[in-house]
Amino acid sequence: MISRSIISLLCFLAIGFQVALAQELPRSSESALEWLRKMADAPRQHNYSGTFIYYAGNHIESSRIVHKTDDAGEHERIEVLDGTPRIVFRTNDELKCYLPESKRIYTEKRWFRKFFPDILPQPFGNIDENYFIKEVRRERISDHECQVISLIPRDSLRYGHQLWIDVKTGLLLKTAIVRGTEVIEQFAFAQLEIDGEIQSDLVKPDAFMTQDEWKVTNLLTSVIKKGELKWQINNLPTGFQKLIEMRRNLTEKPVFVDHIALSDGLATVSVFIEPIIEGAPTPKPGFFTSHGAINIYVRVLNGNKITTVGEVPLETIKLIGDSVFKLN
């Protein structure tokens, strides 16, 4: 349930008011930007394995990760250790998600790098235009000395970030998303080994996962050429750019869904447009939340459900979702 004060704030923002901080914040130093460059490169250059913890409110979830680099590229296994078992294998941008309880496998080609500790595009783009990047202090995480970097948003449209970057390798060991003094979510390694030898079988499915009774669903993505998609966003918030337009067969959806992906260089937002099937339940418009920094906004337009999802504040989600329109 969203409080009246938040609703009032959203209405106020919707008519164009933004808290601009750009004049108060200087440009980021070259040394601070160099830490981000090092962090963006690190996952492609190092082997690592360990356990990381995700915190959001009262929700805590631990995962085990093994990451190997070789001449063929990157190979990775992430296994969620709490709740419903989930194991994701990645070879470069090819993903396979195994659900042992239901014996289902979902495959997909990754369209954007966004998995801890690999959270920055490479090379990264306009982050300094949207965040003031500041070197803060040194701290130790999982027995590794880290440089703490603060990313302070230059306006009210995005969250702040704290990054703990391994001094030796540049690998991200901890990250926190914040709004003011409130910590919204965190990822942090509880145990980590960097640059150790990793056997190839550790990043391959176990024997029981290769049995014939597993059902495989291939989640297909078709990149749409510029101008082909009839849905557009007419007023992107400051700092956000369109990354890609796609058509996808998402899980449990009877029809293909149009997908527009946006980013400000760090935060990502996705807009999904799908026709409302005759006889299906009428979508419920409004705001929905999940764990942590992800917010969701749903509206109905001309017989279509428009879902905007992203790791940005509610007012930003609404600005983007309300700007979606269909070309004649």
Which secondary structure elements does this structure contain, and how are they paired or packed?
Elements lengths: L3 H11 L15 H12 L6 E9 L2 E12 L2 E8 L5 E6 L2 E6 L4 E6 L17 H4 E11 L2 E10 L6 E7 L5 E8 L2 E13 L20 E4 L2 E3 L7 E3 L7 E8 L8 E7 L4 E8 L10 E4 L5 E7 L2 E7 L3 H8 L2 E3 L2
Parallel strand pairs: 6-12
Antiparallel strand pairs: 1-2, 1-11, 2-3, 3-4, 4-5, 5-6, 7-8, 8-9, 9-10, 10-11, 13-15, 14-21, 15-16, 16-17, 17-20, 18-19, 19-20
Pfam families: MucB_RseB, MucB_RseB_C
Organism: Nitrosomonas supralitoralis
Family: Belongs to the RseB family.
What order do the strands of the largest sheet run in, or round the barrel if closed? 7-8-9-10-11-1-2-3-4-5-6-12
What is the arithmetic mean of pLDDT?
A: 87
Q: What's the total count of β strands?
A: 21
Strand content: over 45%
Described by its quaternary structure, the protein is: single chain
Domain MucB/RseB N-terminal: 31-205
Family: Belongs to the RseB family.
GO biological process, one term: regulation of polysaccharide biosynthetic process
Signal peptide: 1-22
Describe this structure in words.
By secondary structure, the protein is mainly beta. It folds into two domains: 21-216, Lipoprotein localisation LolA/LolB/LppX (outer membrane lipoprotein receptor (LolB), chain A), CATH 2.50.20; 220-326, MucB/RseB, C-terminal domain (Phosphorylase Kinase, domain 1, 2-Layer Sandwich), CATH 3.30.200. The protein contains four helices and 21 strands. The chain has helices at residues 4-14, 30-41, 127-130, 314-321; strands at 48-56, 59-70, 73-80, 86-91, 94-99, 104-109, 131-141, 144-153, 160-166, 172-179, 182-194, 215-218, 221-223, 231-233, 241-248, 257-263, 268-275, 286-289, 295-301, 304-310, 324-326. Strand 9 and strand 10 (172-179) form a beta hairpin. The chain is globular and about 55 Å long. The chain starts with a helix and ends with a strand. Residues 227-324 form the MucB/RseB C-terminal domain. One of its GO terms (molecular function) is antisigma factor binding.
